Amino acid sequence: MEKLIFDYSSKGKGGVSLPTKSAGEKAVKEYIPESLLRKSELNLPEVSEPEVVRHFTNLSSMNHHLDKGFYPLGSCTMKYNPKINDKVAGLPGFADIHPFQPESTTQGALELMYDLEKMLCAITGMHSATLQPAAGSHGELTGVMIMKKYFESKGEQRKYILIPDSAHGTNPSSACSANFQTLPLKSNERGCLDIDDLRVKMNAEVAGLMITNPNTLGLFEEEVEQIVEIVHQYDGLVYMDGANLNALLGIARPGDMRFDITHINLHKTFATPHGGGGPGSGSIAVVEKLSKFLPVPRVVKNGTAFKLSDNFPESIGKVLGLYGNFGVMVRAYVYISLLGLEGIKSVSRNAILNANYLRVKLADKFLVPYNRICMHEFVASGDNHRQLGIKTFDIAKRLLDFGIHAPTVYFPLIVKEAIMVEPTETESKQALDEFVEAMLTIDKEAHENPERLHEAPISTPVRRLNELKANKDLNICWGK
Ligand SMILES: *Cc1c(COP(=O)(O)O)cnc(C)c1O
User: Fold this and answer.
1) pLDDT, tens digit, 9 for 90 and up, residues 311-343
2) Pocket residues for ligand 1 (CB within 6 Å)?
3) Residue 151 maps to a domain
4) Mutation test of ligand 1: which of 140, 170, 408, 413 has the most ligand atoms closer than 8 Å to its C-beta?
5) Both 333 and 346 in a single domain?
6) Would you say residue 70 lies in a domain?
7) By residue range, what is the domain housing residue 443?
């Protein structure tokens, strides 16, 4: 277990050498009012440079991360992030720019944004894009705000948005945040949207449908063309939650499926280290008739010069103060540029192959409710282990002892004891086989030694936490 940095501290040790006072230096209180000055010494640890480096290196490896091991967290696309992306994002011309710098000095950054929007349009088959939303969920909110504005511009007040029962929780919350009411749609026995339910619920009071494709079961929506058609018959808009775009790159485009709006989680599909709430970018792409509603400022090209323009009178306005998540855009740009069209196609093909490999290997011992060819992920269930007194939660916790991050669990809600596995394309066959081995060992333990599973994880720095207590008894006061 790593000690606190204060435990390494002893008086007089240090890792920096500061210049001695220069002549003519004034006292601090000549710059800062006395009332704002600290009254006692700042309690900082006194440690040497190697101690600092070792301390933080040790801390960083206590948590699981992608450079440490397999991370099959379904719906999150935790793929390996090529280091070249970070290298380019760290170039001074990108990393050190300020949002209020004159545009003449940020032409390269603006050009990158302009080109990235074009790339995303090409990949999604859409007319125009914005890079403003800072997360997928923020892209959803932006999308439904555009839906609202579209109907207002036609003098219509539509009340509802339809959302399948398999949807990610951010879909209904985005719709509600934009003052829509949500109506759930059922899934059918094949794990796809129940088209009859859609027929019953779609009418001229419904603004549209938010649907994930491939859906959260990792299955391609087989009747996508009819689904879109039904919504369009009432001039409704269809929003594709594009969090699963990692399955479609270079193979199928939301625009060709006649979706009206889609978001792209740049941090998922186009490789940025993410998790724990950031950093992200939830760019959205729209069809031509919705283009004028996109948020401002937009990057435009005048001759050979690029600028940020507010000159879109019908825009929904700003959804983010400044483009502070620019580094994510640079990473996506580098990632797409280096792979090219053939490369991104092989990303999706390998992601799909890997998921199907795992699905078939695990299906003997684990329940797979919709056991047919899947896309880039699949959903198993721990329900057949319930009778042994083992929950999905126990299986997830035990995996940590094998140095593997747990898959997404208990989502989607329509699968009992769900275990959602997304291997991504960056894992080798060996890594996948190790995961299978771990899962089969856990299955064996469930039969032979279930107690062990209840105690897991055993080898991690922190054992099983009381997650309920953390929610119910929130205490974020330092030192209490
Ligand atoms: C990740 C995800 C979202 C939300 O995206 P964030 O970037 O995390 O806000 C929405 N829908 C689905 C299906 C997702 O997997």
Assistant:
1) 999 999 999 999 889 999 999 999 999 999 999
2) 75, 135-137, 168, 170, 212, 216, 241, 243, 265, 280, 282
3) yes
4) 170
5) no
6) no
7) 342-472
